[in-house]
């Protein structure tokens, strides 16, 4: 299966293709929880560079994401929110032009 992170300049789907897109949701998760990128950068100090945190908090998705960075983000967000933050809150699979198939705390097969 082909995945596109949906950022400008990357391969665009052909007309009629129903290819899934991975939506990067760090910016939304920060807003929903009242956390600033600066606060997250302070929490990640020594593990993830401040510029990296700011880059990841931008509206455009990252071209690459190191698993160690993702793990550090999840741990820091968990400490800042006081609850477990799952990778599904940061990444959502959606079809082109449609709403994400997952939302915070919901399962795609829940109905």
Explain what this protein looks like in three dimensions:
- This protein is of the alpha+beta class and 111 residues long.
- Residues 106-111 have low confidence and may be disordered.
- It has a two-stranded antiparallel sheet.
- The protein has a domain at 26-83.
- The chain is 36% helix and 9% strand.
Describe how the helices and strands are arranged.
Elements: E1 20-24, H1 26-32, H2 37-43, H3 50-56, H4 67-81, H5 87-90, E2 91-95
Antiparallel strand pairs: 1-2
Helix pairs in contact: 2-3
What labels describe this entry?
111 residues, 36% helix, disordered C terminus, alpha+beta, two-stranded antiparallel sheet
Quick synopsis:
This protein is an alpha+beta fold and 111 residues long.
């Amino acid at each position: 299966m082909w995945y596109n992170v949906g950022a400008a300049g990357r391969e665009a789907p052909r007309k009629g293709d129903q290819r899934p897109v991975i939506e990067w949701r760090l910016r939304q998760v920060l807003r929903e929880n009242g956390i600033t990128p600066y606060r997250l950068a302070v929490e990640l100090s020594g593990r993830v560079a401040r510029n990296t945190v700011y880059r990841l908090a931008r509206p455009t998705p990252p071209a690459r994401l190191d698993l160690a960075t993702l793990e550090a983000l999840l741990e820091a967000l968990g400490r800042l929110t006081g609850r477990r933050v799952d990778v599904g809150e940061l990444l959502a699979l959606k079809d082109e032009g449609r709403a994400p198939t997952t939302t915070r705390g919901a399962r795609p097969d829940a109905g």
